[in-house]
Specification:
With 362 residues, the chain is α/β, with parallel strands linked by helices. The protein has helices spanning 16-27, 39-44, 65-75, 90-98, 113-188, 192-217, 220-225, 227-242, 259-280, 323-333, and strands at residues 8-12, 32-36, 53-57, 81-85, 103-106, 245-250, 284-292, 296-303, 337-342, 348-355. The structure holds adenosine-5'-triphosphate and magnesium ion (MG).
Length: 362
């Protein structure tokens, strides 16, 4: 049985004497009792949320306890209603149970426990139902939010593809187009050497840009040489592209990681470094790869930038942005841990750890 704490019962009884006696007896159990004299008084202002149960006499001056029960059932299928009945009303009481009353008691009660036991049981059951409904509602809201985020992730991926397509068209396409024009001019111009040189430098630039794009799209180093080298190359590439000092270090443990974990860690570092570049105003970032004794492979990205107030993780699902949430989401899916510490004015430290497939092999 749950706590009796904070239970409020609405007692409906038109007989002064038995009303007073019942109110006092129920209150002796640390229960708050509101006493009303008629079903009409309850119906005029039906406020079930204010109570945990109704205890009502069947025979009242006007509308009966059974009428009151019907009204309550229109509002709530499960709200506890216990009816009190004199011997002569026993048929009506049995009918009332069929209509959804939780129980009925014969008046006068032998002792208050006869009422308290079924009353507390009904209240306990009702509170459990309300609690479960609340949990289910929260669960549904969370799932809706997750589905929404899932579609946002697809959109974000599509936007990234579009950015790459534009980049391909605007930079590499233009450069190669200009090179073809230069080569066209070679056959028609006296100054062919200059056009060949121009075409050479345009094709060279296109090659450079292709390399950078390929790296942004998917690092070949990751698949051929492993995570450690890929992250090192990413640090060098991002450091020079965005003109920020990125220091890479590792404890040189050569460990075998599942491919999905490698991809997660690589993308996480890229997102965390992108965040440093976009948001931190930092002069320096460090990236460290280490093997932890608890068989965890851990990458830490730290910056000396302006820092920010980190919201609790349960709230990330409600944020507009996707970067941190998607690291946490993918990390959870792989049994890893994403930690983020930051304070305004004191920089940011983020780390992603994943379990290892096998131990270190130095
Ligand atoms: N290293 C950092 N320094 C300062 N602020 C940061 C840093 N990393 C994250 N933030 C703050 O946390 C917010 C959430 O980051 P998150 O990566 O989720 O989103 P975003 O970078 O704004 O957008 P998205 O990653 O979806 O393109 C950022 O908008 C920024 O305010
Ligand atoms: Mg981001």
């Amino acid at each position: 049985m749950r706590e009796k704490y904070g239970i409020r019962v609405l007692l409906v009884e038109d007989d002064q004497e038995s009303g007073q006696a019942l109110k006092a007896a129920i209150e002796l159990n640390d229960i708050d009792v509101t006493w009303m004299l008629s079903a009409e008084e309850v119906m005029d202002n039906m406020e079930l949320a204010k109570y945990d149960a109704i205890v009502s006499d069947i025979r009242l001056g006007g509308a009966s306890g059974v009428d009151l029960l019907s009204m309550v059932r229109k509002e709530s299928r499960d709200f506890p209603v216990i009816l009190l009945t004199a011997y002569s009303d026993i048929e009506a009481a049995i009918e009332a149970v069929k209509l959804g009353a939780n129980d009925y008691m014969m008046k006068p009660l032998d002792d208050i426990e006869t009422l308290m036991i079924p009353l507390l049981r009904a209240i306990d059951h009702y509170r459990t139902l309300l609690h479960n409904h609340e949990l289910q509602k929260k669960n549904r809201e969370y799932m809706d939010k997750l589905m929404h985020l899932g579609s946002q992730l697809v959109l974000a991926e599509e936007q990234e593809r579009r950015k790459l397509a534009l980049d391909l068209h605007d930079s590499i396409g233009q450069l190669l187009g200009a090179a073809i024009m230069q080569l066209d001019l070679v056959s028609r111009s006296e100054d062919w050497k200059k056009h060949v040189e121009n075409a050479h430098s345009q094709v060279g630039e296109a090659v450079e840009r292709t390399r950078a794009l390929a790296l942004e799209l998917s690092s070949p180093v990751l698949y051929h040489c492993g995570l450690m080298q890929a992250v090192q190359e990413l640090c060098g590439h991002m450091g020079s592209s965005y003109d920020i000092d990125i220091i890479f270090s590792s404890d040189n443990s050569k460990v075998e990681l599942p491919e999905d974990s490698s991809i997660l860690l690589y993308r996480s570092v890229r997102e965390l470094l992108m965040n440093v570049i976009k948001h931190a105003d930092a002069s320096q970032a460090t990236v460290n790869i280490s093997f932890e004794p608890e068989q965890q492979y851990k990458i830490t990205v730290e910056d000396d930038g302006k820092g920010f107030e980190v919201r609790p993780k349960e709230e990330w699902v409600h944020m507009q942005s996707l970067g941190l949430f998607s690291i946490m989401d993918r990390c959870n899916a792989l049994g890893g841990v994403f930690q983020l510490e930051s304070k305004v004015g004191e920089g940011t430290v983020a780390s992603v750890s994943v379990p290892l497939l096998s131990g270190p092999n130095n």
